[in-house]
């Protein structure tokens, strides 16, 4: 079988498994796209929605595979790749709406900033809002090892600086990242599927109550 056909089948299967979520993202695209009616913004929102739907199926598979001790590193690589793309695409939609003052509510800015904290290390290999550091930061390896005393110094003024953001799989099977927040000077985990839920909730798209034979969304 051709790879293109296999990917198309996987994509179609994910949509059929979660029709109510698909309807929510279609509605979100219509509502958000109306803010910029002569653009393709509606398509951008619905595309990140379709990636989210596919990822949720991969996340369910991840949980099932972990429970059976059959989780493949190739599965994690694919899930991580799509999750990174979802973060970048979602952030660009949020950045556009905020910069055009089409949605500058505190709640939406909070979602956009969390996306930014993940997106900058992924795409630019640096810490988001590094200008707040005012000097340098010292990092230890993650996960920590008992005999590991080596530290990595991150300096915004160093042209060769880089930041490898730790990532992993959450209890819900979703990719999560350990972000560095230079505003609070703290590190904490952000989960992809939680960010997707927050976007849908903010755009106030009501989900239809699933029937008994439908898959219940997390």
Give a verbal description of the structure.
By secondary structure, this protein is mainly α. The chain has one domain (3-202). 52% of the residues lie in helices and 11% in strands. It contains 6 helices and 5 strands; from the N terminus they run H-H-H-H-H-E-E-E-E-E-H. It has helices at residues 3-17, 19-33, 41-67, 73-99, 106-124, 192-202; strands spanning 137-140, 151-154, 167-169, 175-181, 186-191. A 3-stranded antiparallel beta sheet has the order 3-4-5. The relative contact order is 0.14.
Tags for this model:
218 residues, mainly alpha, three-stranded antiparallel sheet, 6 helices, disordered C terminus
- Derived from helix and strand composition plus strand pairing, the structural class reads mainly alpha
Major sheet summary line: 3 strands, antiparallel
Give the spatial strand order of the biggest sheet.
Answer: 3-4-5
Mean pLDDT metric: 88
Amino-to-carboxy terminus distance: 32 Å
- What is the tally of helical segments? 6
Count structural domains: 1
Number of beta strands: 5
Which percent bin holds the helix content? 40-55%
Q: Per the principal axes of the C-alpha atoms, what is the gross shape?
A: globular
Order of helices and strands: HHHHHEEEEEH
- Poorly predicted regions are 205-218
Strand content: 5-15%
What value does the Rg take, in angstroms?
19 Å
Short description:
The protein is mainly alpha-helical and 218 residues long. It contains six helices and five strands; from the N terminus they run H-H-H-H-H-E-E-E-E-E-H.
